């Protein structure tokens, strides 16, 4: 096994058109405010060798802009789509709480055993996200990589890195719009080691 250090910056998309809601697979583009949030989260000190993005409009449009600016490869991965919230999609948290509050509370307390009505099971969601995460660790080893994705995706990746039980992966981490996370993956003959370097609205850090 070749020794390598790979640094991943994950960034959640900015505010989409329509504002905050359980959006999931609802494919809205970024609002003007969302574009500004994303651009504000990037600094002149940032350096990446490649960008990986969710194909959803609120991610891929900004990822393409950055890839063109830096003249680096852009990879779109269907597995990085947000979790499907089923019947809750297109509704605000207050609307869901008013009509389905008990089930919503159970979901946040234990999403593994409380799938939203008509939604994607968290175990299935986790499987496809971690499959993507491990794939890009191998495919882009030794590079600095930006992943443009969703709040749920970041939660799954951080849970994998920090060994957080899946039951607590949603409630245990906040992921506001344009939130960034940095993860370092070191691979050697002794194995693969993942570490969370930073999370939140932080300025660029040098690997």
From TrEMBL:
Database matches in Pfam families: His_Phos_1
Active site positions: 13, 82
Sequence positions that bind substrate: 58
Record CDD domains: HP_PGM_like (cd07067)
Gene Ontology cellular-component terms listed: cytoplasm
Domain of life: Bacteria
SMART domains noted in UniProt: PGAM
Single GO molecular function: phosphatase activity
InterPro entries the record matches: His_Pase_superF_clade-1, His_PPase_superfam, PGM_Phosphatase
PANTHER family xref list: BROAD-SPECIFICITY PHOSPHATASE YOR283W-RELATED (PTHR48100), HISTIDINE PHOSPHATASE FAMILY PROTEIN-RELATED (PTHR48100:SF1)
Name listed for the protein in its UniProt record: Alpha-ribazole phosphatase
Organism annotation: Marinobacter antarcticus
């Amino acid at each position: 096994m070749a020794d390598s250090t790979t640094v991943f910056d994950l960034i959640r998309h900015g505010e989409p058109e329509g504002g905050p809601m359980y959006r999931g697979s609802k494919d809205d583009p970024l609002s003007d405010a969302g574009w500004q949030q994303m651009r504000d989260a990037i600094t002149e000190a940032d350096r990446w060798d490649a960008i990986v993005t969710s194909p959803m409009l609120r991610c891929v449009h900004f990822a393409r802009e950055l890839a063109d600016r830096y003249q680096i490869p852009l990879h779109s991965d269907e597995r990085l789509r947000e979790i499907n919230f089923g019947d809750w999609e297109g509704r605000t948290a207050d609307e869901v709480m008013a009509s389905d509050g008990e089930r919503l509370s159970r979901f946040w307390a234990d999403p593994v055993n409380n799938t939203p009505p008509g939604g994607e099971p968290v175990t299935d969601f986790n499987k496809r996200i971690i499959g993507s995460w491990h794939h890009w660790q191998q495919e882009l080893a030794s590079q600095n990589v930006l992943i443009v994705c969703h709040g749920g995706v970041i939660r799954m990746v951080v849970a994998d890195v920090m060994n957080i039980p899946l039951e607590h992966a949603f409630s245990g981490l906040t992921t506001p719009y344009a939130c960034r996370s940095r993860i370092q993956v070191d691979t050697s003959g002794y194995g693969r080691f993942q570490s969370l370097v930073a999370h939140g609205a932080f300025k660029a850090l040098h690997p």
